[in-house]
Design brief:
This is Flagellar motor switch protein FliG C-terminal domain-containing protein. Pfam families: FliG_C. The protein is mainly alpha-helical and 157 residues long. It is built from seven helices and three strands; from the N terminus they run βββααααααα. It folds into two domains: 43 residues, no CATH class; 103 residues, Flagellar motor switch protein FliG, alpha-alpha superhelical domain (Annexin V, domain 1), CATH 1.10.220.30. Helix content is 51%, strand content 11%. The protein has a three-stranded antiparallel sheet. β2 and β3 form a beta hairpin. The chain is globular, with a radius of gyration of 17 Å. It starts with a strand and ends in a 14-residue tail after the last helix.
Length: 157
Amino acid sequence: MSFNVRKVGEHHFRLEKEFFSTQLDLVDSVRLMSKLDEQLGMNPPLSQGQPNFLALYRKLLLVLTHMDQRSMQHLMHLASRDLLVNILRTVKASKLENRLMTYITKRNRQAIESDVLYDQQIKPGDALQAYSDFFALVEQLIDEGQITLVDPNGDYY
């Protein structure tokens, strides 16, 4: 069975097949693909290995850094310290970690760096939960109009 996939927006897709159609955003569609892979035995469940969509979450996190500085600082301020520790553990020792740290207050940065878990490797299930919670906060702030995502090329999405 194959579906027709149409791009509706920057990160929104429409799947269609005869009398069935649904619209998914990028994160939900990747979750669906991962779950289908898991059902087909092509991707182990979370307890057995790293899900294939953690890399996508890292890319989405990188896209967030293109927001204006005020919005990004506001987001990082509203995220809990534990959530930030887990998010930063997923991008440890990378340019993205340094980029994210620039939006965190000096006091919070020191607390994060001195956290016991900060230097430990994160389990895939914990990383997935951290990203889910973080992007739920992002969606909430967007819905409330507190932050606006800006495409690096100048288009809003």
